[in-house]
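Example complex used in Figure S2.
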Amino acid sequence: MIITLLTDFGTADYFVGALKGVILSANPRATVVDITHEIPAHDVQAGAFTLLAASESFPAGTIHVGVVDPGVGSARRAILAECGGQRFVGPDNGLFSYVCERAGSAARVRHLTNRKFFRKDVSATFHGRDVFAPVAAALSAGAEPREFGEEMDDWVRLASLAPRAGDGGAIEATIIHVDRFGNCVTNLTRRELSDERIARGATLVVGDHTVRSIRRFYADGAGDSPEPFAIWGSAGFLEISAPRASAARLLRVRRGQTVLVSPES
Amino acid sequence: MIITLLTDFGTADYFVGALKGVILSANPRATVVDITHEIPAHDVQAGAFTLLAASESFPAGTIHVGVVDPGVGSARRAILAECGGQRFVGPDNGLFSYVCERAGSAARVRHLTNRKFFRKDVSATFHGRDVFAPVAAALSAGAEPREFGEEMDDWVRLASLAPRAGDGGAIEATIIHVDRFGNCVTNLTRRELSDERIARGATLVVGDHTVRSIRRFYADGAGDSPEPFAIWGSAGFLEISAPRASAARLLRVRRGQTVLVSPES
Amino acid sequence: MIITLLTDFGTADYFVGALKGVILSANPRATVVDITHEIPAHDVQAGAFTLLAASESFPAGTIHVGVVDPGVGSARRAILAECGGQRFVGPDNGLFSYVCERAGSAARVRHLTNRKFFRKDVSATFHGRDVFAPVAAALSAGAEPREFGEEMDDWVRLASLAPRAGDGGAIEATIIHVDRFGNCVTNLTRRELSDERIARGATLVVGDHTVRSIRRFYADGAGDSPEPFAIWGSAGFLEISAPRASAARLLRVRRGQTVLVSPES
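Predicted assembly (795 residues):
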């Protein structure tokens, strides 16, 4: 059984090791996989995006432990979400919002209340080790979701990933992620922006820059122009990239910035 | 069988891969777990602390390979320490000092001298690959500790983790670690500083700053004050933290700095 | 079956998680091992060196997935190389050049053309997930190399690792890697530079600096002199190091710089 870990712990401290030790103590046969521990500290939205993009490559039954948890120890709840055949264990702060949004009405969320699955002494500062990892290990060893707590509906949601429709075919989209190569991931999918509209000449406006070119792959047309271009990225979203350069730096783009899809003229 | 790795190798070079390759070559069924490879280069004390904090989440029988080894190739000895039901393999430079201190008189340390467990050609620069990883793999495959070498008593110890008692109930403690969030971990445990003393108003003095507030969790009282506060951290030590900020930066604290616990007045 | 990963993805994004998810979906029993994900972006030569140095610690049969792939989506080919009893899957851009060079005429390279082993929809931007990881998983599950495509001879080669012989016993060598400690790895092996020549007083000239001392281990002669020295490194190459300092910084050395071995006078 696969248990993945996604945290904002970094890899320099003992935190990640502690999670793995707890899981392997409870279930020595679990396969523990790091997704990342480099989510910016306390950045729930970045964690939610990365989990959305990574989880779709994992098989049904995978258990994901997500710990981006600025409210640890406070009244924020701990949850177990079941979405798309996978399980997600972590704080109720929106971290699983995007995977639940994608699963739609099939998503089920439970409030983790059964303390028999927690570490004997739950610290106030490290629920990853004391609550989420033990729960994930118990799940991987065969415990049923209903044993952990009741279903709930009012779990915390982030703003929807869907872009907003504007006038006359315009779309108001957003940069939802900037990756290590400086590619700027928008929230536009092929549902909102068809290849036909692109072929008819739809353009993207980011700040005071207009992106007119859509490439098929990064090196497509390389050598021609240093201009940023758009490309369908591997997570299913339209990305703004630049030839062998960081589009984010070139266009001074940050996450959260608006991207306007102009109606074709 | 679990084999953990803690090094100062970083993750950009081939060193960590080489350790894993050696271990899995000798014992394909070993479960290799990274604790961290981000110990600052040559910082034995940082490695000792991180190993202390991480190892307590691992099950009995776990084998920990620690490689923070500025003296590699010199006359410094290689050791196998047995502490608290776990095994630790690495250089004799204090790296296992804290885990041995915690195990007290139950700690046993052996000098690794039996070259039949080493790589055929032991390089002068990479004992992680040529000595420690092969020894750990052999242990995980069932070799007995006594096969590796004789017990020894004069292994290298770091200064004790215990804080010093001062006059009239004062305690002279130390910052032993600063984590990625800027939390400053002291060497104070509940043995030295009881909750009763805290309730009676004991204060912590770091540099020219006095910390009066002890919180139960990080977000406790959040929104009220930007003041640093103390909190019992997940490794069992009192930490100095700041609300959604780095206490280390705020107080200009570094590892090694003194923290005075003033007697309650 | 061991599958290693070496990429320039960094560890902050979802890319590495996606590779692991794909592999474990196809073969839950694979042992997935990270070599590194910190190859500088698009730096094929750095990837080739790290793979050369790491792979020799892995057992026969290991499958290495290498993804440093600036040409992803373009006409560059995907290959499977068989060298020294191990398998290497990735782009045909020189990434496996050094391991093939070491294997000599025994190296076999195939063009990956059988799309039945690829992801159903191959994206134009993430062949790691859509081509290389699925191929590696299929190999680990028992597929035969010949099922993936035809052998080819004109795979992309980097400049040879071998240093050039100069006049009168001089050798023109190169810095091929700088590690995290600032050690500068040359392409000199004991084949080109015998211990006898060193004993007779061969010197290394890097920029305007002459290195005369060869040490047996890093701390050898420590305390004496801050002078850089040469040492046989763990990857089998002569390295230029400095006592508890970065030789690269001290000598202002970068990868690619020439190192002259002067004839003994």
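The longest strand of chain B covers residues 171-178. The domain at 2-147 of chain B is CATH 3.40.50.10790 (Rossmann fold).
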